[in-house]
Amino acid sequence: MSDEGDRAELPRGGAADGAKLMVAAIGLGALALGGWLLHDFLTGEALLPEAEEALPELPEPGEPQERPMVSTGEGYGWTWVNPQPRWMPTWYAVDVADDGARAAIVGHRGAAVRYEESAIVVWPTGTEASLRGVAWVAAREAIAVGDDGTILRLGPGGATPMEGGEATLRAIVATAEGQALAVGDEGTILRIGDGVRPLVSSTDAHLLGAFARGATVFAVGEGTILRIEGDAVAAEASPVTSTLRAVGGCMRGSVYAVGDRGVVLRRHADGRWTRLATQVNDMFTGVSCDHGRVAAVSAQGRVLLVSGDRVLTLPSGFDGPWHAVDGGADGPSWVVGAGGRLATIEADHVRTRTAGPAVPIRAMGAIGGALVAVGEWGRIVRQSATGFAEAESPTESGLASLIPIGEGRLLAIGDFGALVDIRHDRATLLGTPTQSSLRDGVGTAEALLIVGSGGTVLRGPPDALAATVIADAGDLWAVSGTPAGAIAVGDGGLVVRLNETGFHRVDCDTQLTLRDVAHTPAGTFAVGDDGLILRIDGDDCAVDRRGGPALHAVGLGPEGRPIAAGDGGVVLERGDDGWTRVGVNVLGASIRTIWRRDRNV
């Protein structure tokens, strides 16, 4: 029951945090002071040694705080319950505007949002390619780059694609109004303006991060540090051979590069890079200016503050991958990562801007009025007075369905025959008669009917289930009804009617996999691949709708009409004129289950 699109996948080369455009000015009279001032202008850093006493002080670390952004309704009476403020995909890059009031965030499968006026706004991109870097190039315009050479100008009117070649682009920085420089795989370096122009690179190593200061851009990658000035690309000596995944810093002072095996490098005014003692072995994925100091984040959930050669860890309250960080001298900095996680770095603590488990859910139920959900890797999510939280689970097998089997009791079923007895205060693994993956079931504490892979059918009470197999049936994905009379659907358009002792097949004249089935007052409906919806009446089947994303769930909607949902966040409702799409925006999340309690769905 894996869904790689939802997993906290760290792309090769990680993700690069954006770096802001920095513009310096110099008067004609200053040129008379000598070449060292000219160098200061070009590089944004003084050749004079930095005074340690001038470096920002590191704070006493505070505990992380959870203050999620406020969720909003998503139309048609739908409101986000978990996570808060809404489900979001894995994010790979962030760029905070110079004024600190706006942030552009991009990620998995073309997802993009911007934070402005204290709200998250979806930024349509029109692409399925994962976006790995983003940079503001004007007050209301950003450029995003990503897989397979994707380049998009994002503006108020939407996204405009540009030709970027075939190499995946990992990072981008603004270099002037409306212009940027992007780096990526196989040493790719592109200048982006009205068009796209490649630079001759001195390496074929993958370049994973970039940072602009004045007219100079630093790029880092697989054992590589480059300095780019105009069209000239020069290598700088690195004290390590480790992969470097990000580079950044503040408007003045040292530049820092971070990467694998806990590496944090500092570039001094004379161009030397030295390694800092971090005492950790994390994979650092992002580095940026933060409140005048520097912040680095890692794939292990670490947030590191750096000032000069001094380092300090801020507790983040998250042990999953952070992919990028970006901020400025006045803060706060934004941190983005796996599972849609967002956070800001305040003066002395990390503030989580999202709340609730961000894990793939496959089924829902309730105990004592409190919601319970189960999903991948045996995860169990429970609702309490303060929100949702993961609960202890006795298994790592994916859990696919929840069956109410008595007051205050749910039976979760899943991969490798997993049977989990869930009560209000515990979850216990039960014995199983099969190693087949179990997908759905109906029944009570006295009698159950459960279906699964390879045509597996289980019958009996929870502690005495017996397994049978329907020959040549393939996988059975869903069942609806009671143990005395139910209908199950599965691979290759299979529809079977089941009772307490046997079964018979229903010919529905389709080879498409059916993934869910439900009895409603309007009839019995099965849904599946290619947007197929079948209406089943006795032993007769009719196509009610076909076309579009795969549908994984069907049930009764809040208005008492049948609804179906599936990939890409599609939600359909059946009315007098057939099936029409409901305007529910879940940012492309795949919807896997529909559960109704009273009038709430």
List descriptors:
601 residues, mainly beta, Methylamine Dehydrogenase, Chain H, Thrombin, subunit H, five-stranded mixed beta sheet, four-stranded antiparallel beta sheet, 1 helix, 1% helix, 45% strand, disordered N terminus
Q: What is the CATH topology classification name of one domain?
A: Methylamine Dehydrogenase, Chain H
Mean pLDDT: 89
Tell me the radius of gyration: 27 Å
Weakly predicted, low-confidence segments: 1-53
What is the CATH homology-level superfamily of one domain?
YVTN repeat-like/Quinoprotein amine dehydrogenase
Question: Helical element count?
Answer: 1
Q: Percent of residues in beta strands?
A: over 45%
Q: In which range does the helix fraction lie?
A: under 10%
Care to count the β-strands?
A: 53
CATH architect. name of one domain:
7 Propeller
Structural class by secondary-structure content: mainly beta
Shape: elongated
The span between the termini is: 24 Å
CATH class category of one domain: Mainly Beta
**What can be said about the biggest beta sheet?**
5 strands, mixed
Structure description:
With 601 residues, the protein is an all-beta fold. Among the domains are: 4-49 and 89-352, YVTN repeat-like/Quinoprotein amine dehydrogenase (Methylamine Dehydrogenase, Chain H); 358-432, Beta Barrel (Thrombin, subunit H). It has 1 helix and 53 strands. Strands 1-29-28-27-26 form a 5-stranded mixed beta sheet, with no helix packed on it. The protein has a 4-stranded antiparallel beta sheet with strand order 2-3-4-5, with no helix packed on it. Strand 20 (264-267) and strand 21 (273-275) form a beta hairpin. It starts with 34 loop residues before the first helix and ends in a 20-residue tail after the last strand. 49% of the residues are buried.
